[in-house]
Design goal:
The structure is a single chain. β12 (425-429) and β13 (434-438) form a beta hairpin. The radius of gyration is 58 Å and the shape is rod-shaped. The strands form 3 sheets. Strands 1-2-3-5-4 form a 5-stranded mixed β-barrel. Strands 7-6-8-9-10 form a 5-stranded parallel β-sheet, sandwiched between helices. A 3-stranded antiparallel β-sheet has the order 11-12-13, with no helix packed on it. It is 48% helix and 19% strand. The protein has 11 helices and 13 strands. It has 4 domains: 8-101, OB fold (Dihydrolipoamide Acetyltransferase, E2P) (Beta Barrel), CATH 2.40.50.140; 107-261, Rossmann fold (3-Layer(aba) Sandwich); 304-392; 399-438, no CATH class. It is of the alpha/beta class and 449 residues long.
Length: 449
């Protein structure tokens, strides 16, 4: 029996042909290691997992279409054909395509969707809605058991206790997350209760945050009539909803700070306004008090009662003078009487005495009547002056139904219709109260015409 004996080159050729026929195109996923990039432009590297590795070659002509930059340690998917390098008998993969695997694939999908939505205008600044300064009703779309809702409620309670929060609970990762988020966004808009919507969750890996990179979620955020604040992950995390939302917050806590004002700022402003108002009121009160004091002094100096008091003082002085004059007259009469009595004593004629006595009695009566008449005249004059003063008092005139009308602008007393024109504003003072009026018609004095 003849043995089939192969040379190394023959065997390598057979194996190479068999490999290339059996696996003309195959995808392999693994971690890049032993990466070599010689000056020829070809790439040589190994793909490995935790149990084995395979040598790979990617020639210069295939590098232009790569969607990933080859680096040691990254996980990739490589498409190529299996082959064998005959001179050395090395089994290898001749690669013609490379793309990221796992997170790398998600990153590629992220970039492609981001580019697509940007071209459609979903990221445009003019499409974004402005948030109100004071949002009282806040819808929160997040997990009911996550830290995000606790952080939001804590911040809102500290900054703006007046805020009302309505939670739309949704899963924030997994296959059910994106549909639930879309449904919650639509429900919040249908309810039309909220002033703003906070869409968010805590941090995580790219896979954990992927629901917020879904196209359906992005379009639901864009379609919302209520402004949406995207607050997904930590500050370094970026998702598609951040670009579509009307405002992006680094964290859920930051979103709570952005949608409501800080009550401490309003309290400070309120205290400042209160101090200013208090100072203004106190200053105005002092000014008004000074004006009232001035008016009171002026009124007191011109008050009819004061003038009557002065007249009373004058009357009292006249009465005292009249009493003194009467007393003096009486004394003078008594002196004269004594003198006449003395003369009568010397003359002693009874008839003359009787005549003189009668004359004296007549003179006494005339004197008394004259004095009484003078007193009555002075009393009548005083009463007439008092009545005249009372009649001329502006208060008495007002009490009879009259009023004093002044021009509102000049303060001048109006005594004739000719002083006025239509549209003038007047101020009329009555015995009790004051009325402001406007001239709409002027009628001439018929008697004058």
């Amino acid at each position: 029996m003849q043995k089939n004996i192969f040379t190394p080159s023959q065997l390598n050729r057979l194996v190479k042909n068999e490999l290339e026929m059996t696996f003309p195109s195959i995808w392999i996923e693994g971690e890049i290691s032993n990466l070599s990039q010689p000056g020829s432009g070809h790439l040589y590297f190994s793909l490995k997992d935790n149990k084995a590795q395979i040598n790979c070659a990617l020639f210069k002509g295939s590098r232009s279409g790569l969607s990933v930059k080859p680096e040691n340690g990254i996980l990739v998917r490589v498409r190529g054909k299996t082959s064998l390098y005959e001179p050395r008998g090395n089994y290898q993969l001749i690669a013609n395509r490379m793309e990221p695997a796992g997170a790398g694939e998600l990153q590629q999908r992220f970039e492609e969707l981001k580019k697509q939505l940007a071209q459609e205008g979903l990221f445009a600044a003019e499409a974004k809605q402005a948030l109100a300064q004071n949002n009282h009703n806040i819808a929160v779309i997040t997990s009911a058991s996550g830290a995000a809702i606790r952080d939001i409620i804590t911040i809102l309670g500290r900054r703006w206790p007046l805020a009302n929060v309505r939670l739309y609970p949704v899963p924030v990762q997994g296959n059910d997350a994106a549909p639930a988020i879309v449904t919650a966004l639509k429900a919040a808009n249908q309810h039309n209760w909220a002033d703003v919507i906070i869409l968010g969750r805590g941090g995580g890996s790219l896979e954990d945050l992927w629901a917020f990179n879904e196209e359906t979620v992005a379009r639901a955020v864009f379609a919302s009539d209520i402004p949406v604040v995207s607050a997904v992950g930590h500050e370094i995390d970026t998702v598609i909803s951040d670009f579509v939302a009307d405002l992006r917050a680094a964290t859920p806590s930051a979103a709570a700070e952005l949608v409501v004002p800080d009550q401490r700022l309003y309290q400070t402003r309120l205290r400042e306004h209160l101090r200013s108002l208090t100072n203004t009121v106190e200053s105005s009160f002092r000014t008004r008090c000074q004006q009232v004091d001035n008016f009171e002094r002026r009124l007191f100096s011109r008050h009819p009662e004061k003038q009557l008091a002065q007249q009373r003082q004058q009357l009292s002085s006249l009465q005292k003078r009249m009493a003194k004059a009467l007393s003096r007259c009486r004394r003078d009469a008594q002196v004269q009487l004594q003198q006449w009595q003395q003369r009568l004593v010397h003359l002693h004629p009874a008839a003359k005495i009787n005549d003189k006595l009668a004359n004296i009695q007549t003179q006494r009566q005339r004197l008394q009547r004259g004095i009484l008449l003078q007193l009555q005249t002075q009393q009548n004059l005083l009463n007439s002056s008092a009545r005249t003063l009372h009649a001329l008092s502006p208060l008495t005139t007002l009490e009879r139904g009259y009023s004093i009308t002044r021009h509102s602008m000049t303060g001048k007393v109006i005594v004739s219709a000719e002083q006025l024109v239509q549209g003038d504003t007047l101020s009329s003072t009555f015995a009790s109260g004051e009325v402001n009026s406007t001239v709409t018609e002027i009628k001439p004095n018929k008697a004058a015409s």
